Amino acid sequence: MLPYKSLTEPFEPNAYEKRWLELERKVAEKGFTWATLYENYEDNQYMSDSLLVVPASLAREVENASRAVNDIFAKAYQEAMKDRSVIHKTGISVFLWDLLLAENRTAFSYFCRYDFIASANGLKVIEGNTDTPVGLVEAAVAQQVLCEEHHSTNPNEKMAGNIKNAWNQIIKDYQIGSTDTLYFTCADWHDEDKQTVQYLMSLYPQQAKYIPLADIVVEEEDVRTPEGERIDFLYRLYPLEFFLEEKSATGELIGERFIVHVLNEKVKIINPPSALFMQSKAILALITEKKEQWFTRQEQAVIDKYFLPTYETAHGLDSYVKKPVLGREGGGIQIVSGGTVLDEDVDYYQDQPVVFQQYFPMPDQTVDTWDGPYTGKLLIGSHVINGEPSGLFFRVGEHITGNLSMFVAYTTK
Fold first, then answer.
1. What Enzyme Commission number(s) appear in the record (predicted)?
2. For strand 182-185 and strand 208-210, is the pairing parallel, antiparallel, or unpaired?
């Protein structure tokens, strides 16, 4: 368990609530507006005001592991494009296959987050969020406010600069001219996604406009705004596979038409389609299955060190995590340890193919909450932006790290 700093010791409910509400106001002013989440008919605390004290050696190890893991993902993508028959294992709709197998002239993803478990038994990556990763505003904005409150150094200070570098690389790779507009979109009702998009847009150096997802007009020939402006470049914080279900204002399914426009490069999207390909957790099983075929001995050593064996079946494992290949936010996961189910979610993604990953227990971590100290399981998210490790994102929750797992800031010593 990592040590942590508390702003209110000993815990006194009224004093804690007053101080926490003031902190919530401060982070909201900076653009982090979901410190409280309303779910299950009640307000839930999402941000802890504690500050984890992380050994600098561990932070460096996660950074080095993040770079190595990203390189393995990039190599896996290159090899998968040579052996395109593996696409049927990804669980991605056949309507997207032509798009995913089209020539990609950019990085497989510019904005990624890899989730790690760090314990006395080592450091392991459990999945890659390569398509639409969030946690950026927490790691870049709320992290800074919390470190200032604790009078501590913010180790994520390079994050904004790395995002700017990524945009410059995207401008070059996508050949976005100085007079071109990059449109930013997400589901307008989703506060977290909208504020994340606004933050990323604030760091973009050229012309940019926000357009709610529901306002995008998919015509026969191209994609436009309601005012008739053509959308040539689109950053979308919205899963690419969800576009297939999108409808027009008249109820017409327009997702396939949108995908065809992307395939024909009538509109160029960021992250690119390859990011969805690598988002599938089937990639983890492919890395295990193709370890000796796809990877050099040095790369195999990285896989042995940081990856957990993952299979298409339980493969005789007594302890495993069963994951839907395109599940998100912990949906559809089952955790089995020693033949006993520790936790499971049966509400989402039950119709998807699954993979079975060797179970690697998360360490316990205590943080302050509205109800006093809470001990949960610690997961480390590591943002990799344009191939560069760019900042950590810590969450404390239950065995399954879901939407309500609590964000907690960190510093190093």
1. 6.3.1.-
2. parallel
Question: What does the block give as tokens for 394?
Answer: 């810590």
Q: Which residues pair with 51 in a beta bridge?
A: 5, 409
Cα angle for residues 286, 290, 295 (degrees, 5° grid): 115
Closest by alpha carbon to 250, among 211, 212, 214, 210? 214
Residue whose token pair is 């990639």: 283
Q: Which residues of 236-275 are buried (b: 16+ CB within 10 A; e: fewer)?
A: bbbebbebbebeeeeeeebbebbbebbeeebbbbbbbbbb
The answer to whether the bond into 13 is cis (omega within 30° of 0) is: no
Answer yes or no: are the C-beta atoms of 356 and 315 closer than 8 Å: yes
Q: How confident is the prediction for the chain on average, in pLDDT?
A: 96
Residue environment code for 73-84, b if the CB has 16+ CB neighbours within 10 A, otherwise e? bbbbbebbbeee
Q: For residue 40, what pLDDT is reported?
A: 82
Q: What are residue 231's phi and psi, to 5 degrees?
A: -100, 105
pLDDT (tens digit per residue) in 71-103 = 999 999 999 999 999 999 999 999 999 999 999
